[in-house]
Fold this sequence. Notes:
The chain is an all-alpha fold. It has two domains: 42-143, DnaJ domain (Helix Hairpins); 149-235, HscB, C-terminal domain (Monooxygenase, Up-down Bundle). Helices cover 69% and strands 2% of the residues. A two-stranded antiparallel sheet has the order 1-2. Strand 1 (43-44) and strand 2 form a beta hairpin. The protein starts with a helix and ends with a helix. Mean pLDDT is 84; it is low at 10-21 and 30-41. The site of zinc ion (ZN) has 8 residues, from loops.
Amino acid sequence: xxxxxxxxxxxxxxxxxxxxxxxxxxxxxxxxxxxxxxxxxxxxxxxxxxxxxxxxxxxxxxxxxxxxxxxxxxxxxxxxxxxxxxxxxxxxxxxxxxxxxxxxxxxxxxxxxxxxxxxxxxxxxxxxxxxxxxxxxxxxxxxxxxxxxxxxxxxxxxxxxxxxxxxxxxxxxxxxxxxxxxxxxxxxxxxxxxxxxxxxxxxxxxxxxxxxxxxxxxxxxxxxxxxxxxxxxxxx
Length: 236
Ligand SMILES: [Zn+2]
């Protein structure tokens, strides 16, 4: 039991350490973004000097410099809401990628070629962030100027005990069917957590948002253990 607790905590700290450095940078950018959108809602096209707000200038059609401060939801034309239609998201992502695809700009100026690569990578990043409930939730939390907690204080003991037992179940599982069963249960719980997150964001209850995200992190770590064990079984 003690071994598992330590393992869980170590896994959690590792994930958090990496995330906290990323979060800090993202947070800083978001603060800048708020400032930027307040001070300038439109910019000037680098080519024709006309005022415009789009990726592609409405007057001369040239691809604008990347706006790293753009809100990912806005970039993909969604309202900033937790509930996300996955198919719709993928469709808009592909449409947007097609508009800035480097092949389209191979005969254009250096500036447009480099802009096309920059937009392309930003759109990828935005898509990846919005596509998974966990990352989408963390991103929305950052938009509210908040961070994921760095410790377990948001969790209740009962949940932690439950997670330890679940981890033991994975360790003790000896066949694919048992692992599959554990995985199905986890998927259901993750889905239920995503539903809860939606409610908490709607209610603007950020304390509950954080607690739910931390719980999801634990569930995802158990899911990773299941996958690992499934692969071990396949390999043996
Ligand atoms: Zn222009």
